[in-house]
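Exercise 7. Given the encoded structure of a 287-residue chain, write a plausible sequence.
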């Protein structure tokens, strides 16, 4: 547990502590949420997988954008990071039409002001990745916003910068992941500014919790591909006929084991390191 650290925030599956005026500790738990509800059963090592993968991407994208990572702790689930002034928008990039992007497209033919070709199927690959910012809803769901609304929140010049950097990060990661059999359908970045006003990538990045990962070999436009990591949990929840209102059901151990194995598989495919090696020395992903 973080010694002399002050708890400053809770996410659904993560905790945030202040280490001092300049540094935070981001701790990823093994909690899992599905259909927006945190389940009572943990998936062992899930937080370590997400922390390790984030660290891997931070190390490999430094030339695209500075990031907040200072160190990975020995526990494998905690990231020491620079304290930033976070921007008040979620920077979403979509390479495929899924989730709220698909819903907006069906309703209006566009997503966040990007007019798209007619006749696209659900899950279709887009001609180019698009930047689709969203507001950070304190509670409930983030809401997609257009360029004008995003510019009001961060300024026009900063918006251009985060759009450019977000798309470059997405292209880099999606190309790498595709070569390892994983499609990154979409992803969400959170940026902040350091004391100099330099843009810095924060939060977790390019993990299965901040992105939609699909197995490339099951991809089929016109359908909704299975989630790389959570499909067993979702299928199990659906099989119960649960109404998706909290509290969620307990998850049996075979479903937990299958889900853990999928998280570890994503880590090992993308980072090209055995997960056991990561547990021995988490900073191996940074080298
Ligand atoms: C920051 N969150 C999200 C909320 C969590 C995470 N480097 C940073 N500097 C300042 N603030 C943040 C970060 C980061 N990352 C991140 N909120 C503030 C959040 C609750 C729990 F684990």
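Solution.
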């Amino acid at each position: 547990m973080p010694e002399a650290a002050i708890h400053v925030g809770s996410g659904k599956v993560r905790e945030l502590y202040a280490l001092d005026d300049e540094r935070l500790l981001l701790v990823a738990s093994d909690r899992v949420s599905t259909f927006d509800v945190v389940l009572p059963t943990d998936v062992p090592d899930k937080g370590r997988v997400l922390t390790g993968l984030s660290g891997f991407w931070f190390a490999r994208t430094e030339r695209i954008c500075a990031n907040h990572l200072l160190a990975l702790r020995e526990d494998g689930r905690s990231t020491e990071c620079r304290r930033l002034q976070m921007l008040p928008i979620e920077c979403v990039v979509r390479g495929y039409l899924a989730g709220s992007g698909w819903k907006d497209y069906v309703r209006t033919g566009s997503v966040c002001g990007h007019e798209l070709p007619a006749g696209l199927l659900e899950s279709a690959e887009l001609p180019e990745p698009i930047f689709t910012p969203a507001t950070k809803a304190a509670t409930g769901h983030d809401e997609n916003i257009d360029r004008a609304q995003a510019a009001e929140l961060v300024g026009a010049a900063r918006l251009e910068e985060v759009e450019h950097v977000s798309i470059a990060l997405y292209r880099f990661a999606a190309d790498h992941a595709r070569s390892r059999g994983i499609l990154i359908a979409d992803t969400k970045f959170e940026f902040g500014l350091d004391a100099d006003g330099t843009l810095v990538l924060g939060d977790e990045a390019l993990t299965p919790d901040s992105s939609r990962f699909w197995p490339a070999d099951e991809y089929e436009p016109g359908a909704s591909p299975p989630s790389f990591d959570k499909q067993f949990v979702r299928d199990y929840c659906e099989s119960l006929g649960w109404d998706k209102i909290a509290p969620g059901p307990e998850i049996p151990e075979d479903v937990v084991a299958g889900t853990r194995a999928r998280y570890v598989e994503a880590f090992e495919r993308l980072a090209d390191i055995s997960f056991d090696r990561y547990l021995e020395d988490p900073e191996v992903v940074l080298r």
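Remark. The longest strand covers residues 182-193. Students should compare their own answers with the one above.
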